[in-house]
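Structure first, sequence second, as always.
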């Protein structure tokens, strides 16, 4: 006790006012961990005692972000089992979901070599089915509540896309489509609106997905942005009656494939002149001019441009301030990229429930991050008038 008081007194004498609180937090945290580990081992450091049941095994460093600043902690390690201080915040939802999926694969004996290595690294060789079940139930409840929550207000812009993951089904490995919808409401805020797991991207699956969103309250959709999938286009016209925007990035990739390696740069620059126009009428006129210019040399590309014009330029009919975020599926592509990065750790999922668990947890975390961002995805002043609600669209009263 005397040594602790001397250490604390030294901190008080040497630290500035700005650093004092952070140093005291670190000192207190280290003492708490030392006491907890002493209870777990049954003896003080270096003490020979018949009551000892475990030994210390060095430390691992961890940064702890507090309101007083960054505190560097040295967390004790044990020779048997593991120790994690109770005062630190628990793992994020996605990390728990990943652990649950890995555990489930391991328990069912169908994990890949990479998953086996992860299981061993996590010290989970003795995990039981009941432990897996409890962890899965905790995560599944939160994910289900998130994905089935009511959708309130108007959502002028909707991005939808799918990414494919491998799942074991009936003794075979199959690919399933994870369909995701992201919307922007009349407050200019982004949210993940829904997720569905389907066997493919056929029109009936897209139609049912959009109908589920409408049953939960989705309304006021003016523009749907996606890649050039006929099933999506048909489902949008059938369920939402909204304008469909074909992803400009995907179109350019498809179009330039017909331009030849030597002509891609020139053709890309020509088509880009249509995107640089200020009005929808000017963009359409320039689009047709470019198509006519390349028709003698690349007739197939010109025909593709003729067919794609209304879909690729649909975003031009919307406010100029919004167009840079409406012409492609980039906002949801970045989300899909993060999903791929996190799910690659698993490789092959044991079942579809495991897919829903991990991907749903990732979407829940991303939605929470968007919710606490200070800036809106689209400014309130430019998007409020997009609402179908006449009260929202009323102009502000002049002072």
């Amino acid at each position: 006790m005397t040594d602790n008081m001397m250490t604390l007194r030294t901190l008080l004498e040497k630290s500035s006012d700005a650093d004092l609180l952070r140093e005291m937090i670190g000192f207190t945290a280290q003492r708490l961990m030392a006491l907890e580990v002493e209870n777990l081992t049954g003896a003080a450091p270096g003490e020979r005692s018949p009551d000892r049941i475990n030994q210390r095994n060095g430390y691992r460093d961890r940064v702890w972000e507090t309101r007083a600043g960054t505190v560097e902690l040295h967390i004790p390690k044990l020779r048997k089992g593991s120790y994690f201080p109770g005062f630190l915040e628990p793992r994020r939802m996605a990390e728990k979901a990943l652990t649950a999926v890995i555990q489930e694969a391991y328990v069912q004996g169908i994990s890949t070599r990479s998953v086996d290595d992860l299981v061993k690294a996590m010290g989970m060789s003795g995990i039981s089915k009941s432990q897996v079940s409890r962890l899965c139930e905790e995560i599944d409840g939160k994910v289900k509540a998130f994905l089935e929550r009511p959708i309130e207000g108007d959502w002028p812009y909707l991005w939808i896309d799918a990414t494919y993951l491998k799942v074991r089904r009936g003794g075979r490995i199959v690919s399933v489509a994870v369909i995701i919808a992201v919307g922007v409401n009349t407050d200019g805020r982004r949210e993940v609106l829904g997720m569905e797991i389907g066997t493919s991207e056929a029109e009936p699956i897209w139609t049912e997905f959009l109908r589920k969103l409408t049953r939960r309250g989705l309304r006021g959709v003016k523009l749907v942005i996606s890649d050039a999938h006929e099933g999506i286009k048909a489902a949008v016209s059938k369920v939402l009656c909204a304008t469909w925007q074909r992803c400009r990035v995907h179109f350019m990739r498809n179009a330039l494939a017909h331009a030849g390696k030597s002509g891609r740069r020139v053709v890309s620059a020509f088509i880009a002149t249509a995107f640089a126009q200020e009005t929808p009428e000017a963009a359409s006129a320039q689009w047709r001019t470019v198509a006519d210019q390349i028709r003698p040399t690349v007739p197939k590309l010109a025909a593709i441009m003729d067919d794609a014009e209304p879909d690729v330029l649909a975003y031009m009919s919307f406010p100029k301030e919004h167009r840079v975020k409406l012409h492609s599926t980039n906002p949801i592509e970045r989300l899909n990229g993060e999903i791929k990065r996190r799910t690659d750790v698993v490789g092959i999922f044991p079942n579809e429930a495991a897919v829903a668990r991990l991907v749903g947890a990732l979407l829940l975390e991303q939605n929470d991050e968007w919710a606490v961002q200070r800036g809106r995805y689209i400014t309130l002043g430019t998007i409020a008038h997009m609402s179908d609600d006449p009260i929202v669209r009323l102009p502000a009263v002049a002072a």
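Margin note: The two ends are 67 Å apart (CA to CA).
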